[in-house]
Amino acid sequence: MATIYQVSQLAGVSLATVSRVVNNNKNVSEKTRDKVKQAMAQLDYRPNAIAQSLASNCSNSIGVLVSELSGPFFGEMMAGIEEELRNAGKHVIITPGHSEEDKEKDGIEFLLSRHCDALILHAEAVNDDYLIALSKKKTPIILISRMVESLSSHCISLDNELGGYLATQALVAKGHVDIAYIAGALTKSDAKDRLAGHKRALKENNIAFNPCLYFQGDFKQTGGKNGLKHFIDSKQPFSAVVCANDEMASGAMKYAREHGFNLPNDLSIIGFDNGIFADYLFPPLTTINNPIFAMGQMAARLVLKNVYGKEKPLIQHFFKPELILRDSITER
Amino acid sequence: MATIYQVSQLAGVSLATVSRVVNNNKNVSEKTRDKVKQAMAQLDYRPNAIAQSLASNCSNSIGVLVSELSGPFFGEMMAGIEEELRNAGKHVIITPGHSEEDKEKDGIEFLLSRHCDALILHAEAVNDDYLIALSKKKTPIILISRMVESLSSHCISLDNELGGYLATQALVAKGHVDIAYIAGALTKSDAKDRLAGHKRALKENNIAFNPCLYFQGDFKQTGGKNGLKHFIDSKQPFSAVVCANDEMASGAMKYAREHGFNLPNDLSIIGFDNGIFADYLFPPLTTINNPIFAMGQMAARLVLKNVYGKEKPLIQHFFKPELILRDSITER
DNA sequence: TTGTAGGCGTTATCAG
DNA sequence: CTGATAACGCCTACAA
């Protein structure tokens, strides 16, 4: 691999001059610039990003913590982040936290040791205090899909409460009253907020919250299955169930069908996130749109603006969810 | 951030000694080691990975090229790679190639400029010659889910031909004769091989390949939809369709149902990959298992062994697909 | 506009 | 077992 030194030799200029043309510095005459460019081409020179990082104290890398590398949700998020950052010549280092406190902390340590210029975190298990302490360190952080009041300018978040509200409201609008709810792990703020929205919708419609029609799942398909089983076993009547995400909804659908429910007539089911596969379930799943790709992009833009000083005029911190009406819910 | 120099000062030893304890070099007395460790702890010292990389000419990073960051397939693959590498203290830089030649090349250039120690590539659009040329450069490469004969020791691949065969064979076993096929883009070897397996199964069962019952899709849901539409429009009788992946199968299912088919009785559908959601479709999708997580792990192990000299005894280059029988196919 | 020289935080090669 | 000291490849004042 050619080094900047060899290029300077071939072009008959100094290291500094080569460095200048590499970095598009204005103060180089056309002539020298051409000479240097030619030498670079001839040697197939490419700057060593590592040496650049060390010298400039800027690694051009952004650490990203997600819960899982797999799954419809984080894929979209990573895609949004990567696209935006890559266009700016930055790269991402992605690491999973598996929604466990220790692993999330490990992951963050790991990213920090890599000297990332900034961190974009989808942290679910660590507490606010940890994040607040972290934000005081040198490496800037952005929180995605999480709201910490004192860090609000570093947060990109979705109005989950509203989403939960919209979901339940959609069911009420169809005449449902006995509405079951399968939550995600309440250690996660998303899960808590969506549940709060559900409760608000019930309240506004003078429907009492029935603890027997509540189940705490895990945001995975089995959570939906277990939840539905729980409701059926409890013998409480219910005509609809709202699931705190699409994956649980798909699990609930499967279990319902296996137990003789004719969907959607016997049971209305609504999800949350509008994952790529939601439209391909049967019946096509009514759900709440979670603009996670856009949120990822926005987190990346925030980094570009705050850390690299790039002009990014339109920074949006809060996103609103929307109802996506399909066939999985029906009139009661 | 504390540097190695400050640690050496505090511990009253030289830089070299600190470096030794950082790298677990044997030649340090217990006493000095303790002194140094204490100093490190006191200063909350963490080695600067970038400086280490520059000095050691080893970035401890592995570049990974995938087609898409999102989607059920690549998520699993990345998870397998990351898990294995992370346990070894390495990190991955992931970049998408979007199945386009230019973008794949860009992505590879990008990873190369980052001075990755090795590349794990799921390259679909670049041709064999490009890869062969690439493999002659300094950075070692591993090809995942792709077979290039002259690079076979660098390949981790699935027997796609066998997979295609198994799929069609499963349908034949149920008495189907008029079997339609929706392929992926034939520029991708996976797609070609699966199709070849399909044809072999037909041949072995003395069923003629009917071009009217063949459609080239795109590995996405719309491909399945378009394929099914094509078959229906062509007025050819068919009782089953094999799709070259699960996403197309889900698209085909949706379209079929929207056009009056009662699944699976009116039409048997089989997929490929056994993605996480396959079991949650309706009817649960019969498919061919693609052990992509394990293949990702294996690619990572190969890197660990070849590049970092870690002992990894069990290297498996070829994986066999298996039939996963569920409810989406039925007796004719 | 161009060149010189010091430094970024480590590793690695020698001596001792 | 320990300590100097020269790389690693590039950036960036500062000079010219």
Description:
2 copies of one chain form a homodimer. With 332 residues, the first copy, chain A, is of the alpha/beta class. Helices cover 45% and strands 14% of the residues of chain A. Chain A has a 6-stranded parallel β-sheet with strand order 2-1-3-4-5-11, sandwiched between helices. The longest helix of chain A has 17 residues, at 292-308. The radius of gyration of chain A is 25 Å and the shape is elongated. The interface between A and B is large, with 48 and 48 residues. Chain A binds a DNA duplex (16 and 16 nucleotides) through residues 3-5, 13-20, 22-23, 27-29, 32, 47-48, 50-57.
Layout of helices and strands, plus pairs?
The structure is a homodimer of 332-residue chains.
Chain A: H1 4-11, H2 15-22, H3 30-43, H4 49-56, E1 61-66, H5 72-86, E2 91-96, H6 101-113, E3 118-121, H7 128-135, E4 141-144, E5 155-158, H8 160-173, E6 179-183, H9 189-204, E7 214-216, H10 221-234, E8 240-243, H11 246-258, E9 268-270, E10 287-289, H12 292-308, E11 318-319, E12 322-324
Helix pairs in contact in A: 1-2, 1-3, 5-12, 8-9, 10-11
Chain A binds a DNA duplex (16 and 16 nucleotides) through helix 2 and helix 4.
Largest sheet of chain A: 6 strands, parallel
Estimate the mean pLDDT confidence of chain A: 94
Determine Rg of chain A (CA atoms, Å). Answer: 25 Å
Helix content of chain A: 40-55%
Figure out the total of helices of chain A: 12
Oligomerization category of the chains in this entry: homodimer
* H/E element sequence of chain A: HHHHEHEHEHEEHEHEHEHEEHEE
**What is the spatial order of strands in the main beta sheet of chain A?**
2-1-3-4-5-11
Query: Globular, elongated, flat, extended or rod-shaped: what is the shape of chain A?
Result: elongated
Largest interface: A-B, 48 and 48 residues
End-to-end distance of chain A: 70 Å
Strand content of chain A: 5-15%
Spans of chain A of at least 5 consecutive residues whose pLDDT stays below 50 are: none
According to DSSP, the number of beta strands of chain A is: 12
Judged by helices, strands and strand pairing, the structural class of chain A is: alpha/beta
